[in-house]
Amino acid sequence: MAGLLLAGAVFADAPIRLNTHQQAPLSFRKDNGAADGLAVQVVQCALKQLQRTYTIAFLPWPRAQWQVQHQQADAFFTATPSAERDGYAVLSASILPYERRWYLLKDYPLSPSSGDFKLQARTAAFNGSNMDDWLREHGYQLTSTPPNSEQLVRMLLNHRVDAILGNAYVVDALIAKMGVQEQLRSELAQSLPFGVYFGKAFLARESPQFLTQFNHAVQTCRAK
Predict the structure, then answer these.
(1) Which residues form the Solute-binding protein family 3/N-terminal domain (predicted)?
(2) Residue 89 contacts residue 75 (beta carbons within 8 Å)
(3) What is the pTM assigned to this prediction?
(4) Which of 23, 83, 117, 133 has the most C-beta neighbours closer than 10 Å?
(5) Rounded Cα–Cα distance for residues 182 and 177 (Å)
């Protein structure tokens, strides 16, 4: 019994291993290597309130999730809910409001709300996101899954696809950076919670109150 208690104490003192991916303005590395972004700031604030140490690794999104699934990391963010993720992890309270939006060239004649769009439009979403699964599950013509949102936008501008489904924070920032606002339009697809998925193996090692405490800290940090 003493050995089990000691092992639990060691786990509780170990840094929480967080995975994310490069998607400004939500999560990115500054020139000095430090992690920053709208989502990173909320997570850092919450863990500081809990007086917990942590590491943040930037990985391709599929790998960031795979590591948590296989207990090589403790959590990944920023993520929307899915049944697959729920099998091995638990989603925190929402750390940011989130919109999933369609982006199309301004002269594209169809609306995503039309039946013809689902049958005819060539769509894309980045690899490993809930969005590519959602497009498949809902019968859209998913034709490409590039590794990041910048490639999505460039595919759209080059007429390789008719529409992309993207994270509004990230895609809006890319469009502004590229100066192509006048060429594109967008329509809301879904509003969803956007949180941290903590691995069930990690939570089993933690105090039963950890997730409740983290969620409370998130609400406090969001209010700042």
Answers:
(1) 21-223
(2) yes
(3) 0.82
(4) 23
(5) 13
